[in-house]
Amino acid sequence: MSDLDALFEAAKAVRENAYAPYSNFLVGAALRAPDGTVFIGCNVENASYPVSVCAEGGAVSAMIAAGYREIAEAVVIGDAALCTPCGMCRQRLKEFGTDDLVVHVADLDGIRRSFTMDELLPAAFELEYTSK
Ligand SMILES: [Zn+2]
């Protein structure tokens, strides 16, 4: 199994754990650090909708908690044919993405499209921060 296949399978598996009783829209995300370590997250909704957390947000939090700071590759999987990261998550991924981060968007059958960070978030807001 290739690294990308493994990343897809990790995202697909964690999607099954999503807590989405309000939207019934299950999303999984898997991030691969440059050393190959994978972090996963799923969406977690809340009765107070703004409290909800996206799958990418959960995966980024897990990565940071483990002491990692860079994302080399990501897979986001949802029910829709093109479950691209929301605007907030594009900014989240940009914060930690390597210069050549690729975000793959998948449905249950496989990866449908792949995007560079510049395609997802052109003219991104960013500040130079040296302790990455
Ligand atoms: Zn999001």
TrEMBL record:
Pfam families cross-referenced by the UniProt entry: dCMP_cyt_deam_1
Reaction catalysis annotation: cytidine + H2O + H(+) = uridine + NH4(+); 2'-deoxycytidine + H2O + H(+) = 2'-deoxyuridine + NH4(+)
Record flagged with keyword Nucleus: no
InterPro entries: APOBEC/CMP_deaminase_Zn-bd (IPR016192), CMP_dCMP_dom (IPR002125), Cyt/Deoxycyt_deaminase (IPR050202), Cyt_deam_tetra (IPR006262), Cytidine_deaminase-like (IPR016193)
GO terms under biological process: nucleobase-containing small molecule metabolic process; pyrimidine-containing compound metabolic process
Catalytic residues of the enzyme: E56
GO MF terms held by the record: cytidine deaminase activity; identical protein binding; zinc ion binding
CC per GO annotation: cytosol
Required co-factors: Zn(2+)
Binding site for substrate: N43, V44, E45, N46, A47, S48, Y49
Residues noted as binding Zn(2+) in the record, renumbered to the chain: C54, C86, C89
Keywords, comma-separated and alphabetical: Hydrolase, Metal-binding, Zinc
Highest taxon above the source species: Bacteria
Domain CMP/dCMP-type deaminase: 2-128
EC numbers, comma separated: 3.5.4.5
Homology family: Belongs to the cytidine and deoxycytidylate deaminase family.
Role noted for this protein: This enzyme scavenges exogenous and endogenous cytidine and 2'-deoxycytidine for UMP synthesis.
Protein name, UniProt field: Cytidine deaminase
Organism field: Roseibium aggregatum
